[in-house]
Amino acid sequence: MTSNQHVPSNEQWAELEMAARLAAKQAYAPYSKFSVGAAILDGNGKIHIGCNVENASYGLTNCAERTAVYAARANQGMQEVAAVCIYTPTDTPTPPCGACRQVLNEFGPTMRVRAICDGDEMIDTTLDLLLPGAFGPKNLQEPAA
């Protein structure tokens, strides 16, 4: 089963949520004070984490979702993402930003996306609903002769 078809079990969501909460504690957010943790479930069922890492040159800041994807690819050769869970210690959940949506699209255009927080709200959707008409690898294919 490919990640594009994989729906995480309740147990996997619980593991992703715990991992995202722990990852947020590693965030480096001295400027915004907005810590974010992300946990991705790859196509093989492994969990990878990331946190946001800010920089005094604000444009060089990296979000938690992208950190998780890049680390999973660099460390484990991850090829597909089945799901992502994003945690913010706020009253309302925060979905992935546009840049993160684009990076996530590269590895799982229809992945499950869940954003959680300290409040009662949750976002539970799919990436293709968050990023309709996404640009991706298929757009770079050579035209048929």
In short:
The protein has about 140 residues and is an alpha+beta fold. It has helices at about 10-25, 65-75, 100-105, 125-130; strands at about 35-40, 45-50, 80-85, 110-115, 125. A hairpin with a 4-residue loop joins strand 1 and strand 2 (about 45-50).
Structure description:
Its cofactor is Zn(2+). This protein is an alpha+beta fold. The chain has a single domain (3-131), classed as Cytidine Deaminase, domain 2. It is 29% helix and 19% strand. The protein contains 4 helices and 5 strands, in the order H-E-E-H-E-H-E-E-H. The longest helix is centred in the N-terminal third of the chain and has 15 residues, at 10-24. It is globular. The chain starts with 9 loop residues before the first helix and ends in a 15-residue tail after the last helix. The model has no long low-confidence stretch (mean pLDDT 94).
Give the topology, please:
Blueprint (H helix, E strand, L loop, with lengths): L9 H15 L12 E6 L4 E5 L12 H13 L4 E7 L10 H10 L4 E5 L6 E4 H4 L15
Parallel strand pairs: 3-4
Antiparallel strand pairs: 1-2, 1-3, 4-5
Main sheet attributes: strand count, strand direction, barrel closure: 5 strands, mixed
Shape: globular
Q: Roughly how much helix do the residues carry, as a percent range?
A: 25-40%
Give the averaged pLDDT, no decimals.
Answer: 94
Which structural class do you get from the secondary structure elements?
Answer: alpha+beta
List keywords for this structure.
about 140 residues, Cytidine Deaminase, domain 2, alpha+beta, five-stranded mixed beta sheet
